[in-house]
TrEMBL record:
<dbReference type="GO" id="GO:0009401">
    <property type="term" value="P:phosphoenolpyruvate-dependent sugar phosphotransferase system"/>
</dbReference>
<feature type="domain" description="PTS EIIA type-2">
    <location>
        <begin position="2"/>
        <end position="142"/>
    </location>
</feature>
<dbReference type="InterPro" id="IPR008731">
    <property type="entry name" value="PTS_EIN"/>
</dbReference>
<dbReference type="InterPro" id="IPR001020">
    <property type="entry name" value="PTS_HPr_His_P_site"/>
</dbReference>
<protein>
    <recommendedName>
        <fullName>phosphoenolpyruvate--protein phosphotransferase</fullName>
        <ecNumber>2.7.3.9</ecNumber>
    </recommendedName>
</protein>
<dbReference type="InterPro" id="IPR002178">
    <property type="entry name" value="PTS_EIIA_type-2_dom"/>
</dbReference>
<dbReference type="InterPro" id="IPR000032">
    <property type="entry name" value="HPr-like"/>
</dbReference>
<feature type="domain" description="HPr">
    <location>
        <begin position="284"/>
        <end position="374"/>
    </location>
</feature>
<dbReference type="InterPro" id="IPR006318">
    <property type="entry name" value="PTS_EI-like"/>
</dbReference>
<dbReference type="InterPro" id="IPR015813">
    <property type="entry name" value="Pyrv/PenolPyrv_kinase-like_dom"/>
</dbReference>
<dbReference type="InterPro" id="IPR040442">
    <property type="entry name" value="Pyrv_kinase-like_dom_sf"/>
</dbReference>
<keyword id="KW-0808">Transferase</keyword>
<dbReference type="GO" id="GO:0016301">
    <property type="term" value="F:kinase activity"/>
</dbReference>
<dbReference type="InterPro" id="IPR050499">
    <property type="entry name" value="PEP-utilizing_PTS_enzyme"/>
</dbReference>
<dbReference type="Pfam" id="PF00391">
    <property type="entry name" value="PEP-utilizers"/>
</dbReference>
<dbReference type="GO" id="GO:0008965">
    <property type="term" value="F:phosphoenolpyruvate-protein phosphotransferase activity"/>
</dbReference>
<dbReference type="Pfam" id="PF00359">
    <property type="entry name" value="PTS_EIIA_2"/>
</dbReference>
Amino acid sequence: MLSLTPQDVRMGQVLASKEAVISALADWLEQDGNVAPGYGAGMLAREAQTSTYLGQGIAIPHGIQACRHLVKKTGIKALHLPEGVDWGEGEKAYLVLGIAAGSDEHLELLRRLARALGRDDLAERVRQARHSDDILRLLRVDEGEEAPLLEWRAETIRTGLKATALDELQRAAADLLRTNEQELAALQSPLHLGQGWWLSQTVTEGKPRMALVTTMAEGEHHGQPVRALLALAVSGNGHKRLLVQLADWLVAGKGAELAALAGEALQRALTRGPVAPGEQALTANQRVVTVRNHQGLHARPGAMLVQLARQFEAEIRVRNLDGDGHEVNAKSLMKLIGLGVRPGHQLLFTANGADADEALTQLQAAIHEGLGEELVPVTAETGTVHRVQDIAANTQVHGVGASPGIAIGPVYVETPVTFDYADMACNAEAERERLNSALEQADRELAEAAAEAAAPQARDILAMHRELLSDPALLEGAGARLRRGASAPAAWWAEIDAAATEQAASANALLAERAADIRDIGRRVMAILCNTPLPSPPDTPYVWVAEDTGPSEVVNMNAERVLGLVTAGGGPSSHSAILARTLGIPALVAMGGAVMGLKTGTPVILDGEAGTLHVAPAPEVLARARAQQARERQLAEQAWAQRHQPAVTRDGHRLEVGANLGDTAATAAAVEAGAEGVGLLRTECVFMGRSRAPDVSQQLAEYQAAFAALKGRPLVARTLDVGGDKPLSWWPAPREDNPFLGVRGIRLCRQQPELLETQLRALLTAAGDQPVRIMFPMVADWAEWRFARELFERVQADIHAPNVQVGMMVEVPSAALHAPQFAKEADFFSIGTNDLTQYTLAADRGNGALAALSDGLHPAVLKLIAMTVDAAHAEGKWVGICGELGSDLQALPLLLGLGVDEVSVSPGRIPMVKARVRECNLARCRALAGRALAARDARAVRALVETSS
Ligand code: PEP
Ligand code: MG
């Protein structure tokens, strides 16, 4: 064991150079019988390889491996150099400890020093020390005196590299550290800590960072083993805890054992130290909690967890200790679900901020209580869960319906592909060529798929994917990684993963769901690079079950063969769901991880309307479903054949049916699907995805395209409805705690009237003599209405559009309650039931956990619709419905009964909506509506409709 006594320290030495210091130490060690002649040369050789400067004015020169035979007796000698000696790279040493050790005994010293190095003023105190006792005291530091922490982070630990050369490890570590060129140069001289562990250190002015890489097999560098490299870019002393923790393992002689651990296990081991299992493992700002929900952390409990996390200021990160180890923001649902938490998995939460402790306590308690779900037991021996609620035969599982229709058939469960590739490569140029050729091949494949795709949306998505393939940021990032020695697949996937993770963190659910597009294109290129074919489904028809499907997979799927689509994750607004609707494939999303446990071949009934999956149905259930499916098919065919006929009830009452559009280019297709006009043009599409506001001529072109395709049919244009959850990149808006209750829609336009004025000018001009109806979103108060109406009148006084009406959306309860006043001035109302429902029931429309509550058929919402209709009709004005409720076939008789004059729905739904109206009788609908208004809740209303039809 190395120990330092007062006799081993010579105070107040003055020496001119590092070489002189080393020579003096070597002589002293030789005189005391610690080493044989020649050891000094070995110490100098070590310095030539790597600097032994530790930090805080301390250096620890020792001989290279090849001169260990010269060590006769372990020992240490220290020279105190108050004037300092230049130790290279601008560092000055005030205390130099010459070490003679035949094995790794110097590590105990290193461990002690690592603790001492945590003191900010150590260098200065060493310099000013007068007695050798002072030095010994300074090197003894209490356990409690820890400097601020730099944590082991799973994202910056990469284990099991195929490469074993030290310089390759350095490149990999530099890549993880994201070093700049200057830092990279400073990292070039690693210090061998022992047992194959190396340390590279550089000073940074930026945030301190760590990176740790380990090898799959042991390598060698100048006679020393190579197993792992810890690289640090540090400014202060926050990293010293890491060194102490690592040194603890090396002192315990467990360096090799440690280096052999996989990512997450390695991080945990380092944090815990080489202690027996069960001992304290976590820092104060961490908690480990076991998830015992029977389907793991799927959408509903996940949403509850995220809501809870968002109530705290603290930054909260979480990783699945039983997953792939990456850490995510606990306030992002997409990321949380992406952790793939199954029953029995352990989550490690880390929180930082004033209320971190409270946040951790509450999160832990909420998970223990089941996040609103029943819990299942975890066995002590295995740590796994008895899956008491694995999907049994003849069971119905609920999810979110994303595309209507019934599909019956065997499932094909797609298990995710894994790609095998080396992280590092020797020839950067060859790797660049490899990546370029894979990108070209992927582009060719996409072009071919686009040429064959029938649906315009499919073509658009494939075009967007081709754009992604040549995205400069993606290519630049991958290029930089290639230059640092990464292999083509490693470089490509690292960039894809980072871009998708960033996208998934977007507060806007629609944008967040685009992460699937990025990963989708990423996988396509990986399949080419790794020569790993993507899974191929069976030749016979099947219901496709997957964790999540990429849009290009949906585009490529053979609609003849894919009967239906079921995803464990995803959301109804993901591209996959939109495409499934376009292709007419019934789909369910957000089903939870349990569906991945189904066996390929298991028969199911998928009901995209009801949002249910019936697994291994009993023969009588199957027979009923087949009969219903046949009926629905027949109805759909009849409805399509009559799509251009008006929607008239049996007793002769007509309901107008328009199309909801977010893109003017889809107008002609909507007319072809039977639209009698556009009932809602969400004009945000004209304003988003630009770097500045569109001018009059740009807007004119968009609106004229819609009017041209409508050929005299009316167009209801809703003016700009952005802000809140739909931000505009070119319009900086302050962060809001409750964006849905924030500055959005007409509120935002009041702050920028010129924007609304330009839009009104473009709309009125584009209309010419065709019928144009203009409405304003989110009107909650009289002043907002007056502002909009007056602005409209000013513009109209200039343009004199001949066929125009001006109205407003009713989507805030105050507008419905105050409808009698608004109806005096508004020419029409269009009820936005999506928002009206969320505001009436105080249930966030994007929150899957509240899906059952936010039902537009709630009697409270129906009452507001009735008040709006009555107020409008009293003034001779008309009322439309442009929210999703208009597409709900159960809602239609009630909307007719309440007196609604028009519904506007997604184009694909028009034929069925018209067909449903033709089945109704207005007098009976009125009676039904009266009973619905008196019902207890939405379930009771639905039951009422069910029994009456
Ligand atoms: C609504 O709120 O019902 C509506 C049609 O508007 P959006 O869905 O665009 O908010
Ligand atoms: Mg709305």
